[in-house]
Amino acid sequence: MAGGIREHHGEEMAENHEINVTPFIDVMLVLLIIFMVAAPLATVDVNVDLPASTAKPAERPDEPMYLTVKEDLSLNLGNDVVSREELGNTLDRLTGNKRDTRIFLRADKMVDYGHFMEVMNLLRDAGYLKIALVGLESLPAPIPSQGSAASNPVPAASGPAPAGGAAP
Predict the structure, then answer these.
(1) Which residues of the chain have a pLDDT value below 50?
(2) By CB neighbour count within 10 A (0-12 exposed, 13-18 middle, 19+ buried), where does 73 fall?
(3) What is the Cα–Cα distance from 69 to 64, expressed in whole angstroms?
(4) Residue 131's beta-bridge partner residues?
(5) DSSP letters of 30-85?
(6) Alpha-carbon span 7 to 18, nearest angstrom
(7) 168, 133 in Cβ contact below 8 A?
(8) At what angle do helices 113-125 and 87-95 cross, to 10 degrees?
(9) From CA 113, how far away is CA 98, in angstroms rounded?
(10) Among 30, 52, 107, 123, which residue's Cβ finds the most Cβ atoms within 10 Å?
(11) Are strands 80-82 and 131-133 parallel, antiparallel or unpaired?
């Protein structure tokens, strides 16, 4: 309570040393309402065509284990075709039952996200939780400065990567 009834001696009013917290509570309630209204508006639901990564690639092990999802949704483990039903058994045989082996997962551009996630679930169900996603390496896009974009053209990488079995 901001003020109180106190005994006063004389005509002088006694000083009140209590903090009035009512304005602070009002401000906090207003901020709470603002954030409750603004939080749902901050989420977005947008279809995205994800670009190639420009991150520094991690070091490859001596004998990487590549699992490839081709455009026709068939699976290749290394260079050998493997069925979805035999994926776990084949991985166990090739890795010597080492479930902590990192599996490098590659997929064709045309494979949709749902099918890609099915393959990741197959790996998880088989006990392989260390999955590395493989993509094309690309050069970072230059940041155009105002007025100097035409004077400093940077050639962009175009066309598909060479198909010589080289892994990124």
Answers:
(1) 1, 46, 48, 148-168
(2) middle
(3) 16
(4) 103
(5) HHHHHHHHHHHHT-------PPPB-SPPPPPPSS-EEEEE-TTS-EEETTEEE-ST
(6) 17
(7) no
(8) 50
(9) 28
(10) 107
(11) unpaired
What are the backbone angles phi and psi of residue 65, rounded to the nearest 5°?
-105, 105
For Cα atoms 134, 58, 96, give the angle at the middle one, nearest 5 degrees.
75
Tokens of 16: 């009140």
């940041």: which residue's tokens? 143
pTM: 0.49
For 87-126, the pLDDT digits (tens) are 999 999 988 888 888 888 888 888 898 999 999 999 999 9
